[in-house]
């Protein structure tokens, strides 16, 4: 059997930079993406901040991490760190 579970839809995976260590086993990750402005057409960089669960508690501010969508873990945490 493959590592992908066929019962559920594919989970979102994003790469980002740890910008804050907010409590035990929680990090705030800034995920940047580029998109074209709807009116002017200029390419702009947008950033979203995601709270992610870091089970091993090893990620530090400035690290580039890969996060994966998961079930709600708290009021704000919907992501978990899968690779550092």
Tags for this model:
84 residues; mainly beta; OB fold (Dihydrolipoamide Acetyltransferase, E2P); five-stranded mixed barrel; 0% helix
Structure, described:
This protein is mainly beta and 84 residues long. It has a single domain, classed as OB fold (Dihydrolipoamide Acetyltransferase, E2P) (Beta Barrel). 0% of the residues lie in helices and 50% in strands. The protein has a 5-stranded mixed barrel with strand order 1-2-3-5-4. 13% of the residues are buried. The model has no long low-confidence stretch (mean pLDDT 92).
Question: How many β-strands, per DSSP?
Answer: 5
Question: Could you say which structural class the secondary elements and strand pairing correspond to?
Answer: mainly beta
Strand content: over 45%
Number of domains: 1
Per DSSP, the total helix count is 0
The gyration radius over C-alpha positions equals 15 Å
Cα shape? globular
CATH C-level name: Mainly Beta
Alpha carbon gap, first and last residue: 26 Å
Strand order of the largest sheet: 1-2-3-5-4
Q: What portion of residues is helical?
A: under 10%
Mean pLDDT: 92
| CATH homologous group name | Nucleic acid-binding proteins
Report the biggest beta sheet as strand number plus sense, adding barrel if it closes: 5 strands, mixed, barrel
Give the ordered list of helices and strands: EEEEE
Q: Poorly predicted ranges (pLDDT <50, ≥5 residues)? A: none
CATH fold assignment: OB fold (Dihydrolipoamide Acetyltransferase, E2P)
The CATH architecture comes to Beta Barrel
């Amino acid at each position: 059997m493959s590592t992908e579970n066929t019962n559920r839809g594919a989970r979102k995976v994003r790469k980002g930079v740890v910008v804050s260590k907010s409590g035990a086993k929680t990090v705030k990750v800034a995920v940047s993406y580029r998109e074209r402005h709807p009116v002017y057409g200029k390419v702009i960089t947008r950033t979203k901040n995601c709270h992610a669960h870091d089970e091993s508690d090893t990620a530090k501010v400035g690290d580039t991490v890969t996060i994966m969508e998961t079930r709600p873990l708290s009021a704000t945490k919907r992501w978990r760190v899968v690779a550092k």
